[in-house]
Amino acid sequence: MILVVDLSYRPGSLSADEFVTPVGRIVRGGGFIPRIRHYTALAREEIAHADGAILCGTALADFGYLGGLKNFAWLASFPRPVLGICAGMQVIARIHGGEVYPGAGIGMMEQRVVAPDPLLPGRDRFAAYELHGLGVIPPATFLTLVVSPSGAQAIRHREKPVYGVMFHPEVRNEWLIRGFLSLCRPSGRSGDGLIGVEGEEGT
Amino acid sequence: MRIGVLFSGGKDSAFACHRAMEREEVACLITVLAENPESYLFHTPNTGFAALQAEAAGLPLVTTSSRGVEEEEVADLSLAISRGVEEHGIEGVVTGAIHSVYQATRVQRVCHDLGLWCFNPLWQRDEEEHLEEVVSSGFRFLVSAVSAGPLGEAWLGREVDRPALGELKDIARRHRMNPAGEGGEYETFVLDAPFFRKRIEILAASREYRGDRGIFRIADARLVPR
Fold this sequence. Notes:
Distance between the termini of chain B: 29 Å
Largest interface: A-B, 24 and 24 residues
Structural class of chain A: alpha/beta
Number of helices of chain B: 6
Oligomer: heterodimer
Strand content of chain B: 25-35%
CATH topology of chain A: Rossmann fold
Number of domains of chain B: 2
Number of helices of chain A: 5
Structural class of chain B: alpha/beta
Number of domains of chain A: 1
CATH topology of the largest domain in chain B: Rossmann fold
CATH class of chain A: Alpha Beta
Shape of chain B: globular
Order of helices and strands of chain B: EHEHEHEHEHEHEEE
Largest sheet of chain B: 5 strands, parallel
Strand order of the largest sheet of chain B: 3-2-1-4-5
Helix content of chain B: 25-40%
CATH superfamily of the largest domain in chain B: HUPs
Helix content of chain A: 10-25%
Distance between the termini of chain A: 14 Å
C-alpha cells in the first residue's frame, strides 16, 4: 500500500481532483493500492503499514501546507521510500532543514540531470511540467539531481530513499512515479501490498 | 470560495462546472467569444448560445470578445477573468482542461498574475472514462463541429447518447484519435446538465461541411422544462 497524501487546502477539494487523483491512478496502474489521505488526517497505523509515501502537489495559490508542518513530523522517521511532488518537495525540504523562497515556474520546462540516480535511468535532459510558486534551497543532507532555469527540480536524501521533485511527473513523466514505485517493496505484513491482496481505498 | 468557470458551452467545461458546484460556490460562467474559428485557446462553435446555457443553469454569464489571434488570446482571457472578479467577486477559476498543457499553462499564468486560484478538476483523466462519466451523469450534448476525417458529416448535430458514445470510442481507438476531442477533433454543445433548471431545445440549425471539417451552426434555440 502506498500512502498518497493530499496537501491541498482541505479534504476533498477541487485541487485533489487535479493533483492527487492522477497520482493515485498511476499508483494503482503500478500494481499498488493507493491509500489517499489528507495530510491533516493521517493515522499512525496507516503510516506504519505503508510501503511508501507520495506527497502530492496542490494549487499554485495554495500554501496552507507550510503552515501545518507539524502534520509531517512522521516523515523524519518514516523508514520507507518517500516522493514529494512540488508542495511535497517543499515540505520534505523544510522538515529536513531546507528553505523555500518565492520562485514561480509555470509550463513545460527543460530539465537537466546533474547527478545520476536510479530514479532517472539513462536521462540527461527531459521536458517536464512545472507549476510552482516557490523554489527550494535543498537541505545539506540532500543532493540535487535535476535543475531547470527555475532552480532545483529534483533532490534526494544522501542516505535514504527520500526524493523531492518540483515538476509534476504525473503530467507526461509518469515513468518517474513508476520508477519510484519499484523502490517500494511490499512489506509482506498481513493485509498489505499489491492490488489483489486487498481492495483499493480512497478518502 | 467563489468560482468563475471558463465556459465554452461544450461537455468538458460544463462537466468541470458540475464538479466545481459539488465543492465550491460557482458565482458565474465566463465565455470568450472568439471571432477566429482557428483559435488556439478558445472553443468557437455556437458560443453565442452560452447565454442560453447560463440561463438554463441560473448562473450569470460574463462574456468578452477576442479576435482569436494567438498572441492576443491570453490578454483577452485575462480581461474576461478580471471582469469576473469585478462583477462577481470570484476568487478562483475552473477550466475543463484534461491533457492540454497549452491551455492549462496559459490559464494558470493568467490566474497567477491576477492573484487567483486555478482549478482543473478533469486534469489527467482517462478520456474514455471521462466520456462515460459525462454521459452517465445525465449530461446531454451534441457534436457541434468536426475536424477529423473519421468523424464525417453524419456526426454534425448528432447527440452523443450511449450508442453514439460506443461508436465514438471505437472510432477513436481505430484511428488513434483523442476520444474526448480535446485536440479539436470534434466540439460539443451541451443541451442539458444535472445543474440545469431547464434544458435547451434547438429550433433551427444548419450543417456546413467541407473537406473533413464541418460545423453544426445553431440558429435558434429555446429553454423548455426538463
